[in-house]
Design brief:
194 residues; mainly alpha; two-stranded antiparallel sheet; 7 helices; 36% helix; ABC transporter substrate-binding protein
Length: 194
């Protein structure tokens, strides 16, 4: 219920309060407005920047309510699903199951995905798992970047078209281009290292 002060409380009058620690000031520009929106909804949120070792300890022991975490997943999901969503990982201190999700249906779908023998079986299992995880509401989508950023001197050749499913956007397929390198050396932009 929402009180006269606009804050959310349970039937016993206890305030809905969330601890939200992190160790990165770079996320403040994203997380502060997010926490302000939660506060506008009547949720008491304590967003706190900690030193890295304190945040690491709290994360390892699951001593938080919210976490700003980015996951990089594989094109072919596999055994790592156990670490992120499996019941066994939920009880394992230091695991990546930060939500503490422990659900036998999720476990069964993970095993079905991991044990799949064909791409079709894997696709069916992964889609079913995705649907079940989404209905659990264990995460809040906050941002997405549909590109990878890499800053380098223009001394590499690269394919015109990246390889299919290449998540590194061709970086693995770049090659040193002597002519590009020499042009930068000649222009004084680089010192000749070779």
């Amino acid at each position: 219920m929402v009180g006269d002060d606009g804050m959310r409380r349970n039937a016993d009058g206890k305030l809905l309060s969330l601890e939200f620690p992190d160790d990165s000031r770079s996320l403040e520009r994203v997380m502060v407005p997010f926490t302000e929106n939660l506060q506008a909804l009547g949720i008491d949120v304590n967003f706190e920047i900690l030193d890295p070792s304190s945040w690491s300890e709290r994360r390892q022991t699951f001593d938080f309510d919210l976490s700003a975490t980015a996951w990089q997943v594989q094109i072919t999901p596999g055994a790592e699903l156990r670490a992120f969503y499996g019941s066994e990982a939920a009880a394992a201190e230091g695991s990546n199951n930060l939500t503490g999700l422990a659900d036998p249906v999720v476990d069964a779908l993970i095993e079905r995905a991991v044990q799949s023998e064909t791409r079709e079986e894997l696709t069916v299992a992964a889609r079913a798992l995705d649907r079940v995880l989404r209905v659990k509401n264990i995460w809040i989508g906050n941002w997405h970047l549909g590109a990878h950023r890499v800053a380098v001197w223009d001394i590499f050749g690269m394919p015109d078209q990246p390889a299919p499913y290449d998540f590194n956007r061709g970086v693995d397929f770049w090659w040193f281009d002597q002519e590009k390198y020499q042009a930068l050396v000649d222009a004084g932009a680089l010192e000749d290292a070779f």
